[in-house]
Write a structure and sequence with these properties.
Strand 1 (about 60-65), helix 3 (about 70-85) and strand 2 (about 85-90) form a beta-alpha-beta unit. It is globular and about 55 Å long. It is of the alpha/beta class. Helix 3 packs across helix 12 (about 300-320), helix 6 (about 155-165) crosses helix 7 and helix 6 (about 155-165) crosses helix 12. The longest helix has 19 residues, at about 300-320. It is built from 13 helices and 9 strands. The termini are far apart. It folds into 2 domains: about 10-150 and about 310-325, Aspartate/ornithine carbamoyltransferase (Rossmann fold); about 155-305, Aspartate/ornithine carbamoyltransferase (Rossmann fold, 3-Layer(aba) Sandwich). It has helices spanning about 10, 30-45, 70-85, 105-110, 130-135, 155-165, 185-195, 225-230, 255-260, 265-270, 290-295, 300-320, 325-330, and strands at about 60-65, 85-90, 120-125, 140-145, 175-180, 200-205, 220-225, 235-240, 275-280. Bound molecules: N-carbamoyl-L-aspartate.
Length: about 325
């Protein structure tokens, strides 16, 4: 007999439905996702002030614990915590005791002994943030910054914020995710968020070798031919080939992949005229996207990066103490 596993909800939500941790979007309601987007919206204005700080996490300690490389996610989590006035510790794993053989649990116990309030965790192992959340002291929050191929919930939420800003709604939208779906934690979280928020269609476009075997059960339609798949799109999200997670040759060549699945101007012309182009980064120009498209007028790739700070501020402040939207709007400009 197998031991029943607690649902993600019971781990990441309090009894009254507030965020305790942020590990996955699975099982979270449309109301909660909308609340995160609304809270993030209220933080956008903080990023536009001369003094970009609010005191919501003053006196709290946030530890960035990145066991995998990162540019955007790590720096926007750090900026988000600093703009909330938290003390931030960035642990460089390559020079930490992990490289001397210390286990993840022991590293955590030591960091908890320093009275940390929140760990932002990126790990190559799917499930690592859940494992930490299950054992951490009550009151300490765990935020998943990407685990293996499993989930990247803050990335998906910053993507949702970007879509809402540009399209004003989710209802009726057709959104495609293109490329390496199989290895992408971003795609899994995006598919979940888009369905929860009620888009009309989530379409994945990829060669069979880069699709999970359960693709049809993920809540999306599947298209192997990109030229057909681009039709009627409101949003196209491109993904990087996650070579670090690939075992064996899944593609004939990068040139062949670009020819069939790379987003260039002629393929983009098949979508709706106002279709926006997104990418979580890092982009590989000439592999999954043409430079003229990445830098073109329909690209919102850098808006995604900016929105990452507001979304991470929202998730961190909600996990540390509930609803903050009203408090943010009441905080005076430049208040330390
Ligand atoms: C993604 C990731 O790490 O999962 N990047 C990111 O967080 N912005 C996607 C990728 O690495 O291709």
């Amino acid at each position: 007999m197998t031991t029943p596993q607690p649902s993600p909800d019971s781990v990441q939500l309090t009894a009254d439905g507030q965020l305790r941790h942020f590990l996955t979007l699975d099982g979270l309601s449309r109301e909660l996702l909308t609340d995160i987007l609304d809270t993030a919206d209220s933080f956008i204005e903080v990023g536009e002030r001369a003094i970009k700080k609010v005191p919501l996490l003053r006196g709290r300690t946030v530890v960035n614990l990145f066991f995998e490389s990162s540019t955007r996610t790590r720096s926007t989590f750090e900026l988000a915590a600093k703009r909330l006035s938290a003390d931030v510790l960035n642990l460089d794993i390559s020079t930490s005791a992990t490289s001397k053989g210390e286990s993840l649990s022991d590293t955590l116990l030591n960091l908890e002994a320093m009275a940390s309030d929140m760990f932002v965790v990126r790990h190559a192992q799917s499930g690592a943030p859940h494992f930490i959340a299950a054992s951490v002291t009550p009151g300490v929050a765990i935020i998943n910054a990407g685990d293996g191929r499993h989930a990247h919930p803050t990335q998906a939420m910053l993507d949702m914020l970007t879509i809402r800003q540009h399209k004003g709604r989710f209802e009726g939208l057709k959104v495609a995710i293109v490329g390496d779906i199989l290895h992408s934690r971003v795609a899994r979280s995006q598919i979940c968020a888009l369905n929860t928020l009620g888009v009309e269609e989530v379409r994945v476009i990829a060669p069979g070798t880069l699709l999970p075997s359960d693709a049809e059960h993920l809540g999306c339609t599947v298209e192997y031919d990109m030229e057909k798949g681009m039709r009627d799109l409101d949003v196209v999200i491109m993904l990087r080939l996650q070579k670090e997670r690939m075992q064996g040759a899944l593609l004939p060549s990068e040139q062949e992949f670009y020819r069939l699945y790379g987003l260039d101007r002629s393929k983009l012309a098949l979508a709706k005229p106002d279709c926006i182009v997104m990418h979580p980064g890092p982009i590989n120009r000439g592999v999954e996207i043409e430079s003229a498209v990445a830098d073109g007028p329909r690209s919102v790739i850098l808006n995604q990066v900016t929105n990452g700070i507001a979304v991470r501020m929202a998730v961190m402040s909600m996990a540390m103490g509930g609803q903050v939207t009203e408090r943010v709007s009441r905080l005076g400009e430049g208040q330390p």
